[in-house]
C-alpha cells in the first residue's frame, strides 16, 4: 500500500465493460516527508474519495482484486482507504479533521 492525495477526477463514460462504472480519481503519491510526488496517476475509486483527501492505494493484482473480486478488471491502481490521520513518532503528517481539545 502507498499513500496518495486525490487531486481531481477523471470522467470516462465510454469504457471497457470489465472496468465497471467505478469513479476514477486523479492521484499523486505522497513521499516520506508528506509531500506530493510529481507523477499523476489514475486510480479506481469505489469509496468516493474527494479532492484533497489522502488515501491508501494498492497496485497490481491487489488493485484488480479490489475492483471486482475476480482479478480480471483492467486496473493498475485502486483506492482502498480514505485516511483520517497519519503520524510518525511525535510528528503528524496529516489530519483530516482538526481536533478541538
UniProtKB/TrEMBL annotation:
First and last residue of the signal peptide: none
Keyword Coiled coil: no
Keywords: Bacterial microcompartment
Domain of life: Bacteria
Subcellular location: Bacterial microcompartment
CDD domains reported in the protein's UniProt record: EutN_CcmL
Protein name in the entry: EutN/CcmL family microcompartment protein
Lineage of source species: Bacteria, Pseudomonadati, Pseudomonadota, Gammaproteobacteria, Pseudomonadales
